[in-house]
Structures are given as C-alpha cells and as structure tokens.
Amino acid sequence: LHSTQLFMMASICCIPTVDDCAAECSTIDDRHSCHYSSSDNNDGSPIKMGVKTGPHGIHALATEDIPAGTVIVQCLPLAQSPIIHGPAKPTCFRCFFQEGDDDLSGRRKTETLFRCSRCQIARYCSKECQMSDWNEGHKLECQFYVKQRKMQPEISVSDEEAAMPKALMLRTFASLKLLRDKQSVADDASMIKDAVSCGPNHFASLAVSPQHHSPTSKSTKTLNSSEMNIVKSIMMQHAIGKGKQKESSLDEQAAAALKIWGYDDHQHIRTNDKETPKKKSFTLDQALFRTDDAFKKNNFGILDALHSSIGEGVYPCAALLNHSCAPNTILRYKLDSGDSGVKGEAFHLPLLQIIACRNIVKGEELTHSYVDLMLSTKERQARLRKTHGFTCECKRCVERESVIPLPQDRTLWEKWPLEHRLRVIDQGERHGQDNLVSIDLETALNQCSLGERDRAAILDCVELLTGKAHQSMLCDDVEEELNCLRSAVNMWSDKDIDWWWTPFNLSLYSARSQYFTALLANQEIEEAVDQLEFIVSTLIVAFSHVQNHPLLGLQLFTLGDLYAYMGGAWGRKAYLAYFYAKEIMSITHGVDHPMVLQLVQKIAERTIDN
User: Fold this and answer.
1) Which residue in 145, 300, 368, 435 is deepest, having the highest Cβ count within 10 Å?
2) Is the CB of residue 61 less than 8 Å from the CB of residue 364?
3) Which residues contact 485 (CB under 8 A, 6 or more apart)?
4) Is 483 exposed, middle or buried (0-12, 13-18, 19+ CB in 10 A)?
5) β 300-303/123-124 pair status
6) Mean pLDDT per 10-residue run, the chain (610 residues)?
7) At a CB cut-off of 8 Å and minimum separation 6, what does 91 contact?
8) What per-residue confidence (pLDDT) applies to 281?
C-alpha cells in the first residue's frame, strides 16, 4: 500500500471456524482469518464493525454508536474489473481513473489512456498502474483475452462484455496465488501487508445455490463453455508455478488450483445453514461452477460519484453485511484522484467505504440492500430468491414497518413530498404538518385500483409508447419522440379517468425519467423542471426509510441547477434544492467530496444574493 500510512490492517474472522469460535471479531483462527485494509480515519481510531454468527450465519454489527455519515470501515478489493464497453468513459484497469478526469498528481495520461500491447483491451493511466496490475491480476486476464480472440477472431462487443466475469475470476485467482506465495515465506499471516489477504478457505466457504453445495450435489460435472475451459487451463498452469508445467500431471495442476481456491482435502465446506466436514473432494470443474455462483452473490458493482456502474469488484469485507430492505448503511467508492500519491508508486485501487446512512446504535446489525429499494415487496422477494436464494425477513417485508406521512387527500400527493420538504427547510420543522396521515410505504409506492389484467394492459401500452419514442430518437424525430414519451407519462396522470394509481409507482417513475432526459437533451427546460419535481418527489417517498440516498441527492443537485438556470423567482427554490442536496450528499458522498464543495459554494453565493 502507500507509504503515506492511510490504512491500517485489521483482522476479521469472516467465516465460522470448526468449533464456532468466531463469535467475536477479535477471535482469529489462522486457517480462516482474513486481513482487510481498513480506515483509521487518520486519527488512529479502530474500525467500527464486528462480526458474529447467528441464525442467518455470519453478520456484521456496530461495535459502538455510529452517527450518520460515518465511514464504518473501508476496504480495497481483492480483484477488480472495469466495464470494457458502455456509456462509461475508458477506465484504468487498476485504479479506475477515467479518461478526461482531473488528475491532481500530474503523473497520469488524462486525455487518452493507453492500452495493454498484448490483449488491446486493458487500459491504464500510468506505467505504475500497469506494472502493478500485471502481477495483481492482469497477467492471467491478458492470456484469457488473447486466447479468446484467437478462438473467435471476429468476437463481438457483447461477447467481450459477457466474458468480464471470467476475467474477474482469473484476476481473483492471480491475487490469491500471489498472497499464498507471500504467506509461504512469511513467519505468520499477520506479517502480510497486502491490501487484502483472504483466509485459505474463504471462497470455498461462501454461500452458494443448493445445486453447488457439495461435490455430490446435482450440478453440471464438466465445463461446457469454451471461455470456462480457457479459464480452467490458465488457472492450472499458473497454480503449479512457472517452469513446472511440463513435469507435473494434469491432476497435480488441478489439485494446486483447488488448493488456491480453498477446496483442499483439509478444509470444511460451508453451506447456507451450517459448516460440515468435507467428505468428498470437489473436482476443479465443480469448484469453478461453485465459485462462479458465489461471485454472483457476493461481488459488488463499483459506482462512480454519479451513481453509475463503472465496474465490478471482489470485496470480501463488505460481503460480510447481510441484506435488508430497510438498510442502515450505503456503499460508496473512493477513487484515487492523485492528491495523496507518492511518485513512483501505483495509485490505489477503488476503495469501498461502508457508510452509516442514519444513526446506528451499538450492537445493531449492519446491513445494506442487495436490490432496488423502489421495487414492491413481491418484486424484491422474487429477485432475492432468484439471485441470492433466500426470502427476506427484514421488518419492512415481514412487519411492513416503514411508513411515511402524506396528505389525507391523495390527489395532493404528486409533488407534495418535495414541496413539503423545501417548505420545512425554508420555514421550519413544524410547517405544513396538518391533515397528514401515516401511509405504509408499500401502499404509497404500489397502490392501484385496477385489477391485474387492466394494470398489465396499461403497462403494455406504456412499453409500446416508450419503444416508439426510442425509434423516433434514432431517426432524429424529436417531436415524435417527445410526443410518445408525453403520452406514456399521461397514461397515469389523466385527471378524467375513474381509476387511481399512486403517482410514486416505479413504472411511472421510469417513464418520467426517460421523458425528462429527452426534454433536457432538447433544451425544453421548463417542462424538464416539471418532470424532475415529480421524479424527486417519488425518490423522497421511495427512500424515506433510508433517510439518505445518493440518487436523491444527485437529482436534487440537478434540480437546483435547473432552478438556477431559470433565474428570477426560481432563485429561492434553487437555494433550497441545493441546501437539501447538501444535507444528503454530505452523508452519501462525504463533506470533502468535490460535488459537496460545489454545493457549499452555490449555497454561499445565493445566501449573499438574498
């Protein structure tokens, strides 16, 4: 890591030991211990997260009272991979610096990142990042892309994107091999000063789907994809060590690869419910299927400051947090701007920070959400069963504990959440509290007087209109694009209809978002403001139980900018929107984030003007 001593090593036993002695975070078993790079907040204070076992397995908890906005723990990835193609700008494969961004170090290529000369896919901002990334993971990933291209000379963009999870698995394998090699020459595991050091059996002990629980489970026995066979071949050759491939058998190579992943004869395999001694060995094919399944459940999408996905990372420490539909933490990613780098050293990897999104009391379980919180309970449950294999039993799902105050007259709902919040900021906390009722969040987001068949017909019509709008956009027919999107939005807001659907429903939110984007692109600012006010009101309701969510803060920032652009009487609303955005983004992004500092400046300018 950097010699600037920004990080300290913290040991957390991330999986149960055989005798269940992992009840406290201070209990370390050499066979299971994982070492994570954790924040000392530059003041030497310890991390604020402990780990215990319970009815749902391992879970993280607060070791002290934690105020909203606090960085509970931060950790670097074991492996990471940016999105190769897509809307995101070209990104450094190691530090995730994006082409065209500001570089405070003066050591990066900011205009055009250079490519790896072998695979022509990986990009880098500096020679330091390229050199460090070679041993940390790209060495194997590069072989994969080269072999894939030889096998498919006319490989498509979609095929390259589909191969990303395989490349990330290879990067993880390379990092594990590097750490195992270093541990073999160290006196003990605590001497390893790498950013992340997973316990030997960490990946073999992650929760997986039932068909991958054990070697005797009914799952595919052999690899049937050409990409996975390339992955297997590269792992086997790398596991045995350079120069030893010719003198080793395929079985020996496979055994060496299994040991690096933790599937060796002396381990214990953890199922979702308990840990049982291993009786039969996994084949390498089975281990790769199992690990691929575990990756889908435990890896993280890396987001930029605008809440857009720019890659994927393996963060074992953050994977300790269980899911809740009413989470008390959010995840954010800190990318190296170069302000603390040391000349000659690589920039740090994308740093995941676990942030308290509300005040948390000591002993409370730390959770974050695995799914979109705007979905209905039925949709969230279905998605969690499909992707993670469990039924959520959080208080929002089981007890429907989340409620929000709204006007008793539901015809006033549409923009009320935003208007009410801005009035409170402007005139005080008690303003506008009359004639309100507590509405269950599920009702507020999903209530509809239509039956299932009529509801489906409306959604089909909206889908048809948005599809036509997309085609019109491709044909540069701006007027038809806007007309189609306007009609899609009006499907819900026609005042003459005799049925009612909550104005905060997800389908309407999606249609409004598309309409807003089109209006903004075509400089229809006043109508764009109108749509964004509806959108922000929906987000206030949808995230009311989270209290602070980055997407709401970002949309408020945009709304403030649009109010300011309108000028005149809109100036006061711009000030209030900026103030509200700063309240949220100081927690979700941090008080020192450039966007928050911009908000502070904008607020100060309007305070002087007023």
Assistant:
1) 145
2) yes
3) 465, 466, 469, 511, 514, 515, 518
4) middle
5) unpaired
6) 32 32 35 43 59 73 91 86 81 90 76 90 91 90 90 72 84 86 54 47 64 56 72 90 77 90 60 49 85 85 90 86 92 79 72 92 92 90 88 85 87 92 84 76 87 87 93 93 94 65 90 95 95 97 92 97 93 96 95 94 80
7) 82, 83, 97, 98, 99, 113, 123, 310, 311
8) 75
Handedness of CA 423, 429, 430, 435 (dihedral sign): positive
**Element holding 72 (H helix, E strand):** strand 71-75
Query: Per residue, what are the HEC states of 278-305?
Result: CCCCCCHHHHHHHHHHHHHHHCEEEECC
Q: What is the pLDDT of residue 610?
A: 57
C-alpha neighbours within 13 Å on the C-beta side of residue 424: 11
Q: Would you say 385 and 356 are in contact if contact means Cβ atoms under 8 Å apart?
A: no
Residue with tokens 């006043």: 526
- Torsion 518-519-521-522 (CA) sign: positive
The answer to whether 37 and 196 are in contact (CB under 8 A) is yes
Write down the residue that tokens 């000369």 correspond to.
117
Sheet of strand 7-13, all strands in order from the earlier edge strand to the far edge: 7-13, 33-39, 196-197
Positive or negative torsion for Cα 280, 283, 285, 291: positive
Model pLDDT, residue 534: 96
Predicted pLDDT of residue 241 = 78
**What are 357's two structure tokens?**
């999104």
Cβ pair 31, 200 in contact under 8 A: yes
Residue-level pLDDT at 39 = 40
Instruction: Note whether 70 and 588 are within 8 A (CB).
Output: no
Tell me the helix, strand and coil percentages in the chain, rounded to 5.
45, 15, 40
Structure tokens at 522: 């075509």
Q: How far apart are CA 502 and CA 504, in angstroms?
A: 5
